[in-house]
Design brief:
Blueprint lengths: L6 E2 L4 E2 L11 H10 L5 E6 L8 E7 L2 E7 L5 E5 L14 E3 L2 E3 L6 E3 L4 E3 L17 E7 L2 E5 L7 H4 L3 H6 L8 E10 L3 H8 L5 H4 L1 H6 L6 E5 L2 E7 L14 E7 L3 E5 L6 E10 L2 E10 L9 H28 L14 H14 L2
Antiparallel strand pairs: 1-2, 3-12, 4-5, 4-7, 5-6, 6-11, 8-9, 9-10, 11-12, 13-19, 14-15, 15-16, 16-17, 17-18, 18-19
Helix pairs in contact: 4-7
Length: 358
C-alpha cells in the first residue's frame, strides 16, 4: 500500500500526509497494533493506587492483561497477568491488597515480586519450575502517573516525551490526586478520528458553546512538542467562580499515540482519555478521572460541575467524529485539508506514518 501523496497547506508543503483510507482499512489497524500500540507508553494509573506494600491493580494494554503491584519489598512492578502454568488470567480483581496471588485453576501461588511461591501439582524441585515466574513489563512513573510499555527496548518515558515532565511539574496537585472513577463508551469510528478531533480547536466555536463561554479563546494556544502536543488557555475574566480556582485554565495534552490528559478549571484534577481500538471503525473510549477523592460519592459540588462540563464537551465531540467516519468511507473523499492552526494534527499524522514506515 503506498500512501505518499503531496498535500498543500496554507503554511507549507508536506510531502507525506495521511490519506483517510487509513481510517477505514482493517490492515492498517493490524500494522498500528504491531508498530505503534505494542511499542508505545500507555498510562495505567496513578502512583497513589499502589502506595502501600501489597497494593495492586490490573489493566489491559494493547490486548495484554497486566498486573501492577507494589511488592512486600516496596518495589513497584508490572507483570503480565498470566499464569505461567497454563496461561490463566491470574488476578481477576480490578484492585486490592494481597500478600500472595493465587491462580484459580490449579492453585499455583506467586509472591508480590512475581516469583513462584508454590505449585501444588509439581514436585518442589521439578526443573520445569525453574523459570516459572510472572513475566515483567516495563513500568515507569512520570509526575505520579504510571506508564507501561510492552516493548523491552523502548526509550524511557521521559526520553520519549521530551519536556513533558517539566511541563507537568506546574500542576503541583498531581501527586495528591487519587483514582476516582473510570467509565467507558463505545465510539463508532476509527481511533485516529478521535485524536484528530482532539488536536484542533477550530471546531470549538461551532461545536462547544459552554467551552468557549468558559475559556478565553483569544488566549488559546496549541504547541507541538516531542511526541506530544498540548493546548492551553485561561478562564475568561468574567468567570468569577473559576478564575481563582486551583486550576484556573484548561490544559489539554495529547501523548502519541492514543492518550489524552485533560485538566479543567476548578479544584485539582486530571482526567485521561485512552482510545482502545476494537476494529478499524470501532473504538472503546476509556475515561479515567483523578481528583483528591477516591470515589465519585465523595466529590465536592465544584468537582461534580467540572465533570459535567467535561462530559458535555465530550458528547459534542463524539457526534462529530462518528459523522466523519461515515464520510471517510465515501468514494467522494480521499484526503483532508489542514488549516493553519491544525499543526498538531499534522504532527500526529506524521508520527503514525513514520511508525508504520510509510
Ligand atoms: S493455569 Fe494457573 S495454576 Fe494452572
Ligand atoms: Fe472538541
Amino acid at each position: 500500500m503506498a500512501y505518499n501523496k503531496v498535500i498543500h497547506t496554507t503554511e507549507q508543503t508536506f510531502t507525506r500526509t495521511m490519506p483517510y483510507k487509513m481510517f477505514t482499512d482493517p490492515r492498517v489497524l493490524e500494522e498500528e497494533m504491531e508498530h505503534i500500540f505494542r511499542k508505545s507508553w500507555h498510562l495505567v494509573g496513578h502512583a497513589n493506587q499502589v502506595k502501600e506494600k501489597g497494593q495492586f491493580f490490573t489493566a489491559d494494554v494493547a490486548g495484554e492483561p497486566l498486573l501492577i503491584s507494589r511488592g512486600a519489598d516496596g518495589e513497584l512492578r508490572a507483570f503480565y497477568n498470566v499464569c505461567p502454568h497454563r496461561a490463566t488470567k491470574l488476578e481477576k480483581q480490578a484492585a486490592g491488597k494481597k500478600k500472595i496471588f493465587t491462580c484459580m485453576y490449579h492453585g499455583w501461588t506467586f509472591k508480590t515480586d512475581g516469583s513462584l511461591n508454590r505449585a501444588p501439582n509439581f514436585p518442589k524441585d521439578d526443573p520445569c519450575l525453574s523459570d516459572a515466574c510472572l513475566r515483567t513489563v516495563r513500568l515507569e512513573e512520570l509526575n505520579s502517573l504510571l506508564f507501561v510499555n510492552l516493548d523491552p527496548n523502548a526509550r524511557t518515558v521521559r526520553e520519549t516525551y521530551g519536556d513533558l515532565a517539566d511541563r507537568l511539574e506546574a500542576f503541583d496537585f498531581l501527586p495528591e490526586l487519587q483514582f476516582t472513577h473510570r467509565k467507558t463508551r463505545h465510539l463508532k469510528a476509527n481511533w485516529k478520528a478521535f485524536v484528530d478531533n482532539y488536536l484542533e480547536c477550530d471546531h470549538c466555536h461551532v461545536a462547544h458553546p459552554s467551552f468557549i463561554k468558559t475559556l478565553d479563546m483569544d488566549e488559546y494556544q496549541i504547541f507541538t512538542c516531542e511526541n506530544y502536543s498540548y493546548q492551553t488557555s485561561i478562564v475568561k475574566p468574567d468567570q468569577n467562580n473559576l478564575k481563582d480556582a486551583e486550576s484556573a485554565g484548561g490544559d489539554f495534552f495529547w501523548l502519541f499515540p492514543n492518550l489524552m490528559l485533560t485538566i479543567y478549571p476548578g479544584p485539582g484534577n486530571i482526567a485521561s482519555i485512552e482510545l482502545v481500538p476494537i476494529d478499524h471503525e470501532n473504538t472503546t473510549i476509556v475515561y479515567t478521572y483523578y481528583f483528591r477523592e477516591d470515589s465519585l460519592d465523595k466529590l465536592s459540588q465544584e468537582e461534580r460541575d467540572l465533570m459535567t462540563f467535561a462530559e458535555q464537551v465530550r458528547q459534542e465531540d463524539i457526534e462529530l467524529v462518528e459523522l466523519e467516519q461515515i464520510g471517510f468511507g465515501s468514494q467522494a473523499f480521499e484526503y483532508g485539508r489542514y488549516s493553519p492552526s491544525e499543526g498538531a494534527i499534522v504532527q500526529f499524522h506524521q508520527l503514525v506514518l513514520e511508525a508504520l514506515g510509510k
